[in-house]
Structures are given as C-alpha cells and as structure tokens.
Write a structure and sequence with these properties.
The protein has 170 residues and is of the alpha+beta class. The protein contains four helices and seven strands. A hairpin with a 2-residue loop joins strand 3 and strand 4.
C-alpha cells in the first residue's frame, strides 16, 4: 500500500483516474451508462462504468470510470456484446498503464482486464478431487493438469506425490 499522495489528487476529478489506483484493483461493474461529461469542460458523452463496490479503500469513495475506446472494446469482448446495457455484473481488474498514447505523448491511463479467477485449494480432505488429482499425476507424471483447476500448498503437493509412490517426478 502506498501512503504517498499522487500530484493529480489535487485536481479532484469526478472520475476514477490513475491517481486513485495504487495497484491492480478488482472491481465489479454495476452498470454502464452513456453520460454527459461531469467535469463540465465539454458536452461530450462518455461510456461511464459505475461499480458495485462503494469504496476504493476504507473511507475513500469509489468514483465512476470513463471507458475510453480501448476499455470499451475490452468490455465488449468480455461480455460478448457490443451493447453497454449488457456490461453489468462483470468482474474487472483496473490497473494503471504508464504507456498510454494521448496525442503525441505517453501518459498514465487506466486499463481493464478480466478479474482473475481464484482457484480453490485442494487438500486431502476433498477425497474425491484428491483421488482425481492422484490419478492425473499417475497418468501424466506431473501436476500441470491439476494446477489448471486447483491450487495446492507445497506440502500437499509433496504428500500427493508420496501417496502415488513416485518421488522422482514433479
């Protein structure tokens, strides 16, 4: 966590900006609307994402995010729909890209990507899945296929291999 203040915080934008994001941030889009520029600098309309989460950090209100063309295309791909009304309830990770082209300059800009899916932990207590993992290890000689579906501690990996009677392969 960064306790320093980004210089752009002084400009108090009504929208989420690179000054607000201190690291990749998982959020859920509540809905996207075509809205007039809240800065009142233009009368432009923007695809504007509003989030389920109310706070970015404890005590810091989460602002809506303007979706530029790049981020709109990403949501179109993620939702498999070109319609902003279909972009609700989508999990995203918002991060800062320090190499966004703005005219002839490179600036910091916000980008989105799909929210990383967390894999469940596999332990010996999950007897059916544990047996499947052992069978996969015996078949493949490694745990690569198992790791596509679950996460395991190093200790449990070693236990599984030991139970399979093969300490040579990993």
């Amino acid at each position: 966590m960064n306790d320093k203040t980004h210089y752009r915080k002084a400009f108090d934008s009504p929208y989420l900006s690179s000054a607000d994001i201190t690291g990749p941030t998982s959020l859920t889009i509540k809905h996207v609307k075509l809205e007039i520029d809240r800065t009142k600098k233009t009368k432009d309309l923007f695809n504007t994402a509003h989030f389920v989460e109310q706070e970015l950090r404890p005590g810091e209100k989460l602002k809506p995010m303007i979706l530029n063309a790049t981020n709109s295309k990403m949501l179109r791909k993620m939702s498999e729909s070109p319609f902003i009304e279909d972009w609700a309830n989508i999990g995203v990770t918002v991060y800062v890209d320090s190499n966004v082209r703005f005219g002839k300059e490179s600036v910091e800009g916000l980008r989105i990507m799909p929210k990383a899916k967390t894999k469940p932990f596999l332990t010996p207590e999950h007897t059916e899945k544990w047996a499947s993992a052992k069978a996969a290890f015996k078949r493949d000689g490694n745990l690569f296929k198992v790791f596509e579906r679950v996460t395991m501690t190093q200790e449990h990996q070693e236990q599984l291999i030991e139970e399979c009677g093969d300490k040579e392969n990993v």
